[in-house]
Automatic annotation (TrEMBL):
<feature type="binding site">
    <location>
        <begin position="106"/>
        <end position="108"/>
    </location>
    <ligand>
        <name>GTP</name>
    </ligand>
</feature>
<feature type="binding site">
    <location>
        <position position="84"/>
    </location>
    <ligand>
        <name>GTP</name>
    </ligand>
</feature>
<feature type="binding site">
    <location>
        <position position="68"/>
    </location>
    <ligand>
        <name>Zn(2+)</name>
    </ligand>
</feature>
<feature type="binding site">
    <location>
        <position position="163"/>
    </location>
    <ligand>
        <name>GTP</name>
    </ligand>
</feature>
<feature type="domain" description="GTP cyclohydrolase II">
    <location>
        <begin position="8"/>
        <end position="180"/>
    </location>
</feature>
<dbReference type="InterPro" id="IPR000926">
    <property type="entry name" value="RibA"/>
</dbReference>
<keyword id="KW-0686">Riboflavin biosynthesis</keyword>
<feature type="binding site">
    <location>
        <position position="128"/>
    </location>
    <ligand>
        <name>GTP</name>
    </ligand>
</feature>
<feature type="active site" description="Proton acceptor">
    <location>
        <position position="140"/>
    </location>
</feature>
<keyword id="KW-0342">GTP-binding</keyword>
<dbReference type="InterPro" id="IPR036144">
    <property type="entry name" value="RibA-like_sf"/>
</dbReference>
<protein>
    <recommendedName>
        <fullName>GTP cyclohydrolase-2</fullName>
        <ecNumber>3.5.4.25</ecNumber>
    </recommendedName>
</protein>
<keyword id="KW-0378">Hydrolase</keyword>
<feature type="binding site">
    <location>
        <position position="168"/>
    </location>
    <ligand>
        <name>GTP</name>
    </ligand>
</feature>
<keyword id="KW-0862">Zinc</keyword>
<dbReference type="GO" id="GO:0003935">
    <property type="term" value="F:GTP cyclohydrolase II activity"/>
</dbReference>
<comment type="function">
    <text>Catalyzes the conversion of GTP to 2,5-diamino-6-ribosylamino-4(3H)-pyrimidinone 5'-phosphate (DARP), formate and pyrophosphate.</text>
</comment>
């Protein structure tokens, strides 16, 4: 994915239960030759939550997190999204600095309503990938170009990335970012175990705790 422009549109203080962050808002406009994603959007949005003095760190800790209303807001146990986000925030605060880039990429990029339709199919026995395919989508529509561009604008060329997803590592490396991977493994629940198995077996996520 390529963009004709990526603009920082706002920056403000954001006190949280984890600590005092700054929140930076970004908009990315797709280049004219780029097809919009499954949600039909040509303007993509993301925020960067910044903690501490990341400029003094040669390789700040980073989490690239895709929006998950059901997990992040409603504490759904179908996925590990909220647990991973909390792990990232706690790790960043414990180390004194770092950032989370939070992307508007609900349901691996297919959008909230399509994600709920996929949930409906999962209730009938399909796994997460099978449900996406049944609805006419790929298993994952994200490519992480916007986070890479945000890092470029912030002058960050090396990161310690909290992820189990090797595609995130490869995407940043393809944009010239040096990456050291930090595990994002969290304890599975009875509800999320099959979801995590699909991530490991069909998507290549680096999960050893199952």
């Amino acid at each position: 994915m390529s963009y004709s422009r990526v603009t920082k549109v706002a920056e403000a203080k954001l006190p949280t239960r984890s600590g005092d962050f700054r929140i930076l808002g970004f908009e990315g406009e797709l280049a004219p030759d780029q097809e919009p994603g499954p949600q039909g959007k040509r303007i993509e949005e993301a925020v960067a939550l910044v903690y501490g003095d990341i400029a003094s760190q040669p390789s700040p800790i980073l989490r690239i997190h895709s929006q998950c209303l059901t997990g992040d807001v409603f504490h759904s146990l179908r996925c590990d999204c909220r647990q991973q986000l909390e792990l990232a925030l706690d790790t960043i605060v414990a180390h004194g600095s770092g950032l989370v880039i939070y992307e508007e990429q609900e349901g691996r990029g297919i959008g909230l309503m399509a994600k709920l339709r996929a949930y409906e199919l999962q209730d009938q026995g399909l796994d997460t990938i099978e449900a996406n395919v049944r609805l006419g989508y790929r298993s994952d529509h994200r490519d992480f170009s916007l986070p890479a561009e945000i890092l470029r604008q912030m002058g960050i060329r090396s990161v310690r990335l909290i992820t189990n997803n090797p595609e995130k590592v490869a995407a940043l490396q393809a944009h010239g970012v040096q990456v050291e991977r930090l595990s994002a493994e969290v304890a599975p629940t009875l509800n999320s175990e099959s979801y995590l198995q699909v991530k490991r077996e069909k998507m290549g996520h680096l999960i050893s705790s199952l």
